[in-house]
Amino acid sequence: MSPPPAPGVRERLRIAIQKNGRLSEPARALLGSCGLSWRESPDKLFCYGDNAPVDLLLVRDDDIPGLIDSGLCDLGIVGRNVLQEQASERRRAGRGANVREWRALGFGGCRLALAVPQDWAWQGPAQLQGRRIATSYPALTRDWLDAQGVQAEVVVLSGSVEIAPRLGQADVVCDLVSSGATLAANQLTPVCDLLQSEAVLAGPEAELDPTLAETAQMLLRRIDGVLRIRDSKLLMFQAPRAALADVLRLLPDAEPPTAYPVEGQDLLAMQALCHGVVTWQRLEELKRAGARSLMVLPVERMLA
Ligand code: PRT
Ligand code: ZN
Asked: Which residue lies with its CA nearest to atom 17 of ligand 1?
């Protein structure tokens, strides 16, 4: 029998996700695709996992790295921009890294970009010398300025950054961009990307307690499975042995296929998990190379 847990040691994994915002729905959908479900508390800040020892804490995204750092949560789903900004703040304060990116999750994509008024003729970072840059990401902006050897004033704003040049608060901005529509609406043009961002699964640098680590590994395996099958398809077909080399060359980013002989014929029945997109054009190319009875099937779950 395993010894009882030490007092104060949690046995249920706790994941912090954004309560309201761009990442809340996709984060819940991802965890739902991993087969997890929850009962929500009346205050809707805590969701108790009812089919696995995995609970959710619903918070503001900016609080997520700190919650992991303090051990109040074990993992979190947060934008890389938030994680790296806080990591840079810590570095600048002479403190070591405490929370790291465990997985990139493929949603919430955006970039942290420097944008200047459309009537500027952009000639490069040296043009920013002595200028004012409005941003909600002062640490990452200062890192970039330092790397460019440019001295500029960083004006920290918590929102509505794009309007700062029109209000006379700053000359340029450094902000998150996805479609670019907000910059354009404020007569700004992006000239340089400081960071490519997306939602990430964040966790501590240090190891989790063994029970929590085991649950976290289970979750990671499922997340990897979900991410891997997102664009994957199972391709089934038959091919004469003589055509096999040509056919295999055409499979879009496929894992090593499985082959079975078809009785009484010089044919192989094959199945291959393809991670690339299987287009009609690719199917026609496969057919010309000798494949037949081609079938593309969705993949629902995968556990490597
Ligand atoms: O309340 P809470 O603090 O939790 O939320 P929040 O308001 O700080 O964050 P939220 O929900 O706006 O964004 C959460 C995360 O989504 C960010 O940290 C990013 O990782 C990611 N993300 C992806 C974005 C965008 N795309 C995005 N376009 N976050 C913000 N924006 C903003 C941007 O700041 C700008 O104002 O959208 C505007 C630009 O959009 P486009 O499409 O016009 O370029
Ligand atoms: Zn926030």
From this structure: 79
pLDDT digits (tens, 9 = 90+) for 255-286: 999 999 999 999 999 999 998 889 999 999 99
Specify the number of domains making up the chain: 3
**Based on the domain organization, do 46 and 162 belong to the same domain?**
no
8 lies in some domain = no
**Which of 17, 22, 24, 62 for mutating ligand 1's site (highest number of atoms within 8 Å of CB)?**
22
Contact, 221 vs 35, CB < 8 A? no
84 closest CA partner among 144, 128, 25: 144
CATH code at 92? 3.40.190.10
Helices 24-33, 210-229: crossing angle, 10 deg rounding:
100
Look up the pTM and report it: 0.86
Per the structure, the complete domain to which residue 88 belongs is given by 13-108+199-228
Q: Give the Å distance between the CA of 145 and the centre of ligand 2.
A: 23
For 125-144, letters b (16+ CB in 10 Å) and e give bebbeeebbbbbbbbbbbbb
Residue nearest to atom 5 of ligand 1 (CA): 21
CB proximity list for 217: less than 8 A, separation 6 or greater: none
Residue 7 located in a structural domain: no
